[in-house]
Each structure stands twice: as C-alpha cells, then as structure tokens.
Design the sequence.
C-alpha cells in the first residue's frame, strides 16, 4: 500500500458512497435499511478503487521509479559501489 492510494481512498470513498446513495434516492428508496448499506458498500469499495487509480497513475508516469531506496525521496546513485 502506497501513500498515494491512501490519499485517493479519502477521495473515492465519498464519491462512491454518495453515488450509491444518490442512485437509491433517485429510484425512490429512502429507507435507512437501504441507504446505510449502500453507504457502507461505497466505503468498502473505496480501497480497491483508490489502489487501482494509484497503480494507473504510477504506470503512466515516466518519471516514477519503483526501484528507489528507502522512501526518503533520495534516489540511489547508480555509480556508487555496493556496501
């Protein structure tokens, strides 16, 4: 799990949950027995959606280097000898 997908989960959760609730309300279904599960399903689908969007963004980015060391933002020097 990467940091970008965690941020995207915060964006996709309300979109998916709100979309499902909006669909139910547009169909005339207003009961809590239907609306609450639709919201929960939307939040549960947020993780796979955020992860898929993150992977797609990183695949299309030519400057993204998945082999970098650490996570501190410092790329390893390819000419440096191994320790």
Sequence:
């Amino acid at each position: 799990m990467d940091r970008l997908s965690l941020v995207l989960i915060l964006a996709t959760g309300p979109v998916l949950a709100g979309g499902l609730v909006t669909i139910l309300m547009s169909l005339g279904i207003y009961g809590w027995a239907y609306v609450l599960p639709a919201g929960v399903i939307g939040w549960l689908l947020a993780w796979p959606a955020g992860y898929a969007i993150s992977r797609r963004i990183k695949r299309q980015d030519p400057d993204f280097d998945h082999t970098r060391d650490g996570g501190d933002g410092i790329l390893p020097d390819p000419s440096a000898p191994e320790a």
About this structure: The chain has three helices and no strands. The chain has a mean pLDDT of 83. The CA atoms of residues 40 and 50 lie 16 Å apart. The two ends are 28 Å apart (CA to CA).
